[in-house]
Design a protein that fits this description.
2 domains; five-stranded mixed β-sheet; GTP Cyclohydrolase I, domain 2; two-stranded antiparallel ribbon; alpha+beta; 9 strands; 38% helix; single chain; GTP Cyclohydrolase I, Chain A, domain 1; binds zinc ion
């Protein structure tokens, strides 16, 4: 990945240069799919696709745990579940590199500190912007929060549809997959688990 090609105007517009090998790979894919990569409408497609993939995979450039480094100790005696739900996200399956589109619910029972609520969504996006399987995404989000926030428990439920299933293969639009990961009190105590799932709407 050494040769950086691309007209200077791209660099001027602040877009990252795309190595020639990467563009060539996408041209090969276009040809394999049955089209002609040299026709006008497809000329800039390799560069666009390459940049889009950098964006889909921005998660590789961050450690999602950084979003949990700033905590608030003053919780005003609050000792109940904190829940962020219906968080939309997009990821890509590692088997087909096809979109996974869905929403997540993330909850935790604080010990003595909390994080800014948007941080939970940032942790999710940090792991989602990689090649994933939904099961691992669910587990990674829960594990990261449990490890770095050290709450009494974490519950993560993800519901998503997989383009590799809805747009190809068995072609079943409307089907969604649900995965969950319970840790700490939500794993050990059935009442707490039921409570958090009911708050999430399950
Ligand atoms: Zn897939």
């Amino acid at each position: 990945m050494s040769s950086l090609v691309g007209p200077d105007e791209d660099v001027e517009r602040g877009k990252p240069p795309v190595p020639e090998e990467v563009q060539a790979a996408i041209r090969t894919l276009i040809e394999w799919a049955g089209d002609d990569p040299t026709r006008e409408g497809l000329l800039d497609t390799p560069k666009r696709v390459a940049r889009a993939w950098k964006e889909y995979c921005l998660g590789y450039e961050e450690d999602p745990a950084v979003h949990l480094s700033r905590v608030f100790e003053e919780v005003g005696g609050y000792d109940e579940i904190v829940l962020l739900k219906d968080i939309p996200f997009q990821s890509h399956c590692e088997h087909h590199m096809a979109p996974i589109i869905g929403k997540a619910a993330i909850a935790y029972l604080p010990n003595d500190h909390v994080v800014g609520i948007s941080k939970l969504a940032r942790v999710l996006h940090g792991f989602a912007r990689r090649l994933q399987i939904q099961e691992r995404l669910t587990a990674e989000v829960a594990q990261c929060i449990q490890e770095h926030l050290k709450p009494q428990g974490v519950a993560v439920v993800i519901e998503a549809s997989h383009a590799c299933m809805t747009a190809r293969g068995v072609r079943t639009p409307g089907v969604s997959m649900v995965t969950s990961r319970m840790m700490g009190i939500f794993r050990e105590d059935e009442r707490s688990r039921k409570e958090v799932l009911s708050l999430m709407g399950y």
